[in-house]
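Feature request, filed as a ticket because there's no other form

It would be nice if the structure record came with a short human-readable summary line next to the tokens. Right now we just get the raw output. Example of a typical job, pasted below so the devs can see what we mean:
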Amino acid sequence: MDLEKNLRDRCHVISGDDGDSFVGVKADTDDAIIYFPIGYQLPEDDVDLRIDVQNLFGVLSVFMKEDKVIEARKFEAPQTVDFPIHAYLKVITSFLRTGRYYIESDPEYKTGTKGNTSWPRTVREQRALVQKNGSLVFTNMTVRSVTPNADKQITQIHRFCVYEAFDKLGWLYVPFKPEQPGPHPTIKESIYILTKKLAASHNDNEQELFRAMKNILEYMDEKNLDKQYFFGTDYFERIWERMIDKAFGIEDKALYFPRTRWLLDYGADKVKTPLYPDSIMIFRDKYYVLDAKCYRYGWTGDADHLPNGADINKQITYGEYIERTRGVPNNELFNAFVMPYNMADNLFGLTSPIGNIGEAIGDWKTNMKNYERIQGIVIDTRFLMYNYIGMPEQQKKELAESIEKVLTRGNVPAPTA
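Raw output as currently delivered:
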């Protein structure tokens, strides 16, 4: 890995075009590239950039665990393998935090009056005074002490894993590599040793470290040195949906699913899969149906990169269903598409994390209902990735007000021929 190469040179913001949709990290033995999602503004400061890279990995790891569909299509290149990035980062951060290799301690015992008493050894090795009541009093005890043993195999394995982790991803943190690991057990032997250590250890920190080391070794045991490694997804649009839902949505949105069924003349009736709105936000007793679309319009300004007719009609259906079945009045029910954009660099002159860029309507409707006029909302990608958990009330208010811009718009013009 080229340690002299600037981290910024390894970062790429995707365009969303065909062939440029992967978000995450791809690397081989020579170099690595980190791919940020569309609309992401890379910070100017390199310290902030390192934090952003780690936050990107954190976001990916959370949602890739939650949704296996995100991982369904693997990075389409020859000879690829899944990369246990969490394990690598754990080994790196643990080493940087402690500043040393893991060293196992050997127990030693000595005669003394202070320390951790080993009563079985004390009874066996020390002479007791017998009291009149028959009880025993020990004037000396056998106490336990520990001596670090840097020659133990577990230390050798840790040195090997630390070197491997820094070789692959250490440049995210510091521009150096640790020293060569020296003699160590084979990979298969190391996996066996760590498996035994995991079974015997009751220390949570040790278990996390040993498990990370084992994951690294299992990855190395499966891969070929010529293979590329990667961590990420071609399905970032699903992560975008999840972030919007966590940031703004309610928990029980199933109440708002338009349901359908077949009433059959032959055989039992069949309930079909309902339509699923991405998110339902309820803010100050008003309802906002949100469809998260990781489309390119917020970056390109090209109308061809906006949600299409099927998406528009589906959103109108959601609003109509909620109005009829939940009894939500027109002045409390709104509709929106939510797309990514770059607050610091955009074609609209917007300067806040959330903005309104227009509205979508269906010419087959009267467009007299607020929910029939679906507002186009853009949210800064970097802002969302840092705030999707515990979204501040101020931003929920800002989103609600951006969607309610429909109330200030004039009548919908007639369609042109």
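Something like this underneath would help us a lot:
The chain is about 35% helix and 20% strand.
The first strand starts at residue 11 and ends at 13.
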